[in-house]
Design the sequence.
């Protein structure tokens, strides 16, 4: 038993002893004293009630203070953890931005030193998401339905939509500003959808570069669009498509692959 709980335990024991004493001694002896013609001591019961009330009040007050202190401590710890998470996420984003800038500098140095031999395949760079791209496309916005537990977007929903966009002819895709590549992992972590282990928040803004008319038309007809229609019809998930004349998608800030081989 801890030192902080010992006084509370003694108060509880004292209260229980007083209650047992009332049950044992304050009823039958009164009748016996009246029968014997002796004074009944009527003042005893009010005094006992007052003492018990004071002890019980003190006990409940002490318990309440303990619970209140524990609740405040838990809230402070949670706030501190959230602050640390936010700080680390900002630091990670700064490092990702720095990585993109350094990658661009490396490419410039390679071109300066090697000339045409250093020119990479432009299409391969787009698919690998190692370079920023600009062009027309669509913006697909998906929002949860918080009134239905089945209306919360999960990783499977996002994967279905992304695959539908690739199938519709998208050349580059990003989710909430995070560029996708052939190595991107879309997973579930608790209640959050993660893209390359970075947590996303609703609404999900999916940008896809390609012919806007083609992307919009083909998406609604392929499995990705049918999945969205199913979510809207059955669970109230809201989504919409906007055609844009120009979108700019940043490069993937993840680690690139320089070469691969078979050992």
Sequence:
């Amino acid at each position: 038993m801890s030192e902080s709980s010992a006084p509370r335990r003694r108060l509880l024991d004292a209260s229980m002893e007083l209650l047992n004493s009332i049950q044992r001694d304050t009823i039958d002896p009164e009748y016996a004293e009246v029968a014997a013609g002796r004074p009944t001591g009527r003042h005893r019961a009010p005094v006992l009630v007052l003492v018990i009330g004071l002890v019980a009040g003190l006990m409940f007050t002490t318990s309440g203070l303990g619970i209140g202190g524990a609740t405040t401590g838990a809230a402070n710890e949670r706030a501190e953890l959230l602050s640390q998470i936010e700080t680390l996420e900002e630091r990670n984003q700064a490092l990702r931005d720095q990585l993109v800038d350094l990658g661009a500098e490396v490419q410039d140095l390679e071109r300066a030193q090697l000339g045409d031999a250093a020119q990479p395949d432009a299409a391969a760079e787009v698919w690998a998401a190692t370079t920023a791209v600009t062009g027309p496309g669509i913006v697909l916005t998906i929002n949860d339905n918080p009134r239905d537990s089945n209306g919360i977007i999960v990783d499977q929903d996002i994967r279905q939509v992304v695959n539908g966009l690739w199938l519709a002819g998208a050349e580059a895709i990003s989710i909430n500003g995070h560029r996708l590549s052939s190595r991107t992992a879309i997973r579930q972590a608790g209640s959050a959808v993660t893209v390359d282990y970075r947590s996303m928040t609703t609404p999900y803004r999916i940008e896809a570069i390609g012919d806007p008319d083609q992307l919009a038309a083909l998406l609604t007809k392929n499995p990705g669009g049918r999945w969205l229609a199913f979510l809207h019809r059955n669970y109230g998930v809201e989504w919409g498509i906007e055609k844009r004349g120009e979108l700019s998608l940043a490069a993937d800030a993840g680690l690139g692959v320089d070469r691969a081989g078979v050992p």
Observations:
- The chain has seven helices and eight strands.
- The two ends are 62 Å apart (CA to CA).
